[in-house]
Structure formats: structure tokens, C-alpha cells
Design goal:
single chain, alpha+beta, Transferase Creatine Kinase, Chain A, domain 1, Creatine Kinase, Chain A, domain 2, eight-stranded antiparallel β-sheet, two-stranded antiparallel ribbon, 14 helices, 36% helix
């Protein structure tokens, strides 16, 4: 692998590329790391190929296996700090896993009347200890991960009890139905395809879900496991409590890859730390129309995606809003930060709605101008309380 190779030369010379890989991979760093190899067989090429081939990537960097975070720390650490907003002068630190006391949660339903929040979801990513990530996994290893995980499903009882459905045996009509319901993953991402994310498809992959279809597990979608709790409406407390119970039960049987400095080790560095993403689908057409909407979400440590997730557009004013920070804080802190951030965005949407109704009733009283600065609203509001 040489910088002189066409694809790498094109990458370094590319204009308009804004990925974190492009920002932090210098030619000198490339030359220093390109010949190194990890015990799982991973190389620098395995880690950067997606970002090199897809210059519109946001991160552009995947770990070939757990060892990549150590062997290629000179590249991964700056990207990790940049994405997770860790100051350059400070070390990367991840506190011990702490889900909080789920029996004493203070989260109230964010939208009890069901006017704004369509659904709520909380998920965590997990990879099994002793295995590589997609660039270095073989068909046999994927099947081994699938087998071990299926054995752990037997420990889930009561409302968590369910059935595993292998993609290998699943009929096309059933797959389509589950995808239409946004339950099942697919093999459509060119970013993951570049690094072997869909090798041997669909072998070793499948989905487990309970009878109520409010808890599910994806096997070998990207990370080895995605554990997901979800339901309609805005009852974050119920969704989070269900997830924590399932994660703890499965953790009694499965050994998850974790590092004291980086937290839970994942395929993409954006999921390190807690690997937890708590999100809502929200109808916020008025707030989202403001010029300062995304800047406001940044201040609240919220991540904004389109209706159908990353790399999609919002439809009908419905956005996917979640916590952005996953590293440097505990699981309960991440969920709490998301809860109060979403609560503020929701309150702003209500205030804008009230303002529009005043304008319609009395055209001479313009309570909200079209360019109202919602950042000022964030500044006025109190800080997130500590609920630990």
C-alpha cells in the first residue's frame, strides 16, 4: 500500500472532502502506519478504505478489529477526540459502565398527548470479546458469533422472551415486511460495503424480537450485536428500563469487548464509550425551519438525522434526534442529557406553535418573527439537573 497508489493519491488531493479521516490522516502518518498489521490480520487499509472510497463520509474510519485502536492510535485518537468533543490536551477517559437505578428513574413521558413524538428508541452496540470486526471476520466466525448469541437468547424470559429469525432462512416477503416496519437492517450502505460489512451476506446474520416487538437484537449488522428497545410515543423511562434489563441478562452469558480508556469497543469509533444512542422521532416543523436549529442541537449535545436515519432527509418535519455524546460519560448521563435536550426542543416547538396561532388570530401582533433565534432560548434555560 503506497501513497502513490491512485486511490490514495486522489484522496489526499480531493477537494471538498470534510471527513474526520481527511482532517487527521496526514501523508506522514499514512507512511508511518501503512505497513503495520494486527494480530487479527487487520491493516491500515482495512480501517481507512471506506473513507478513501467515499469522500462524502462523515467519519471515514472503521476499526478492523479491537487492536486497531491501539496499533493505529496515532490516527484513531485524534478522530475519536474530534468526534466526541474531547479537548486535544486531555486524555480520553471512559467511566465504568453505569446504567443508574432504573427503579428510581425520574423520566416522565415527554409527550403524553402524542402530538409531537412519534416513537422512542434506545440502543447499545456490543461486540464479543476475542473477535475481529467486519473487515477481518470470516464466514465461520460470523456463524460462531450467531450461535453464541442465540444461546444467550434462551436467558431472556417474561416480556423479553422471543424468537430468533435467521436471514439465511427468511423469506423475501418477511424481510420486506420487517424492513417496512423499520425493524430489520439491510445491506445497502456503500460505506460499510467498502470495508467488508456485507461479506458472505446473509450468512451469520439475523434478528431476534419479542412478542410485543418492542425489544430486538440484530446480529452481525455491523457491530456483532445491536440491542434495541423501542415503542410508540415518548415514554423514555419505559424504553430505557427494558433495554437495561436485557443488556444485563445477556451480559451474564456473553463477554463483551471493552477497554478501560475507550469503553465498549465497536466497529465505528463514533459508538465507543457507552455505545448508547437514545433517540426520538419528533414532529418539529417550526423549530427545524429556523436557521439556528442545528447549532442549537449542537449546544444541547443532540445529533440530528433525517426521518429514516443517517444520510436521509426529514419527511414532513419529522426528525430523528438523539444524544451525540457517547464517550466520557456514563450510560445514565447520556440518556439524561438526551431527555432534557429533547424536552427543550419540544418546548420550543410548542412556543413557536403558540406564536403562529397568535399571528393568525391577530395579524398586527407578530409574536414570533420568521428568524427568531432559538439559540437565545437555549441560553435562557437552566442547565440539565444531575439526576444520578
Amino acid at each position: 500500500m503506497s501513497e502513490g497508489t491512485g486511490i490514495y493519491r486522489t484522496f489526499f488531493e480531493a477537494e471538498g472532502c470534510r471527513s474526520l479521516l481527511k482532517k487527521h490522516l496526514t501523508r506522514g502518518k499514512f507512511e508511518a502506519l501503512k505497513e503495520k498489521q494486527i494480530s487479527f490480520g487487520g491493516t491500515l487499509d482495512d480501517c481507512i478504505r471506506s473513507g478513501v472510497e467515499n469522500i462524502d463520509s462523515l467519519v471515514g474510519l472503521y476499526a478492523s478489529d479491537p487492536g486497531a485502536y491501539t496499533t493505529f492510535a496515532g490516527l484513531f485518537d485524534p478522530v475519536i477526540k474530534d468526534y466526541h468533543s474531547v479537548p486535544v490536551s486531555e486524555p480520553i477517559r471512559q467511566p465504568p459502565c453505569d446504567f443508574g437505578n432504573v427503579n428510581e428513574l425520574s423520566f416522565k413521558d415527554l409527550d403524553p398527548e402524542g402530538q409531537y413524538i412519534v416513537s422512542t428508541r434506545v440502543r447499545v452496540a456490543r461486540c464479543l470479546h476475542g473477535y475481529g470486526f467486519p473487515p477481518t471476520l470470516t464466514r465461520e466466525l460470523r456463524e460462531e458469533i450467531e450461535k453464541k448469541t442465540c444461546e444467550a437468547f434462551g436467558k431472556l424470559t417474561g416480556a423479553l422472551r422471543g424468537t430468533y429469525h435467521s436471514l439465511t432462512n427468511m423469506k423475501e416477503l418477511e424481510q420486506k415486511q420487517l424492513m417496512d416496519e423499520h425493524f430489520l437492517f439491510h445491506d445497502h450502505s456503500r460505506f460499510r460495503r467498502s470495508v467488508g460489512g456485507y461479506d458472505d451476506w446473509p450468512i451469520g446474520r439475523g434478528i431476534f424480537y419479542n412478542e410485543d416487538k418492542n425489544f430486538l437484537v440484530w446480529i452481525n449488522e455491523g457491530d456483532h450485536l445491536r440491542l434495541i428497545s423501542m415503542q410508540k410515543g415518548g415514554d423514555l423511562g419505559a424504553v430505557y428500563k427494558r433495554l437495561v434489563k436485557a443488556v444485563l441478562i445477556m451480559g451474564e452469558t456473553l463477554a463483551f469487548a471493552r477497554d478501560e480508556r475507550l469503553g465498549f469497543l465497536t466497529f465505528c469509533p463514533s459508538n465507543l464509550g457507552t455505545s448508547l444512542r437514545a433517540s426520538v422521532h419528533m414532529k418539529i416543523p417550526r423549530v427545524s425551519a429556523q436557521d439556528s436549529f442545528k447549532a442549537t442541537c449542537e449546544k444541547l449535545n443532540l445529533q440530528v438525522r433525517g426521518t429514516h436515519g443517517e444520510h436521509t432527509e426529514a419527511q414532513g418535519g419529522v426528525y430523528d434526534i438523539s444524544n451525540k455524546r457517547r464517550l466520557g460519560l456514563t450510560e445514565i448521563d447520556a440518556v439524561t442529557e438526551m431527555y432534557y435536550g429533547v424536552k427543550q426542543i419540544l418546548q420550543m416547538e410548542k412556543e413557536f406553535s403558540e406564536g403562529h396561532s397568535v399571528i393568525q388570530d391577530n395579524k398586527t401582533q407578530n409574536t414570533f418573527s420568521g428568524r427568531s433565534n432559538i439559540e437565545d432560548t437555549v441560553t435562557r434555560r437552566s442547565k440539565i439537573p444531575d439526576t444520578r
